[in-house]
Amino acid sequence: MQKKDMLYEGKAKKLYTTEDKQKMIMEFKDDATAFDGEKKASLQKKGKLNTEISMIFFELLEAENISTHYLEKLSDNEMLVEKMDIFPLEVVVRNIVAGSLAERTGLAEGTELEEEVIEFFYKSDELGDPLLNSEHIKLLELADKEELAEIRSKAREINNVLQQFLAEAGIDLVDFKLEFGRTDQEEIKLADEITPDTCRLWDVSTGKKLDKDRFRQEMGGVMAGYEEILKRIKKEK
Ligand code: C5P
Prior knowledge:
A hairpin with an 8-residue loop joins β10 and β11. The strands form 4 sheets. A 5-stranded antiparallel beta sheet has the order 1-2-3-7-6. 31% of the residues lie in helices and 32% in strands. The protein is of the alpha+beta class. It has 6 helices and 15 strands. Cytidine-5'-monophosphate binds next to β9, α2, β12 and β15. It is an enzyme of class 6 (ligase). InterPro entries: SAICAR_synt/ADE2_N (IPR028923), SAICAR_synt_PurC (IPR033934), SAICAR_synth (IPR001636), SAICAR_synthetase (IPR050089), SAICAR_synthetase_CS (IPR018236). Keywords: ATP-binding, Ligase, Nucleotide-binding, Purine biosynthesis. Pathway: Purine metabolism; IMP biosynthesis via de novo pathway; 5-amino-1-(5-phospho-D-ribosyl)imidazole-4-carboxamide from 5-amino-1-(5-phospho-D-ribosyl)imidazole-4-carboxylate: step 1/2.
């Protein structure tokens, strides 16, 4: 499958059309940004590591009958995905307090949540991706009531599968961000990526951060963290 036009270039990915209108090519870049693009770097091999890690997670979810946009891996840093209409929502699932939840609530980082917390953020650069509740989502007509219920339930299912799988690899799934889309047949499927760029992943026994927080917090060893994740999940596969 050949790339045609570039539809979109984001901070860490590019999206291309193909000769098949229903399929697109997602390319993972080596670039990393944080704090709304204020901090930038190119991290050698990130694209390749994220492609492989995302592929393993998507295949795991498909095997558990959770539909995703993933079709096949095309190269070291490209995958073929199904074209969908993406909901302009970032769906964050949290199992342990960290990041903006700690800032917003004053709860200490590392506090385990009895039940997962699901949050929605509006994908709007102009507004700075604000947190939305379900009434705001209805008000802005970003998803209807049934769609939102389905997104919530799929996010929970995905959390259950990933949390269990990662626990076996000695990794705590602290939190992660998902995006969902709607196919031409009105089916809601998981889109985007699942990588250490979009998840917080801590070593179970030491609490060591293995994800993009190493970049955000200038801890060094960013790619070593990603490589460690890939090594462990490959073993569990
Ligand atoms: O910053 P915050 O604590 O809200 O992030 C929650 C989770 O969502 C983290 O795993 C983070 O990596 C992910 N996230 C993301 N893309 C964003 C915002 C958050 O992948 N734009």
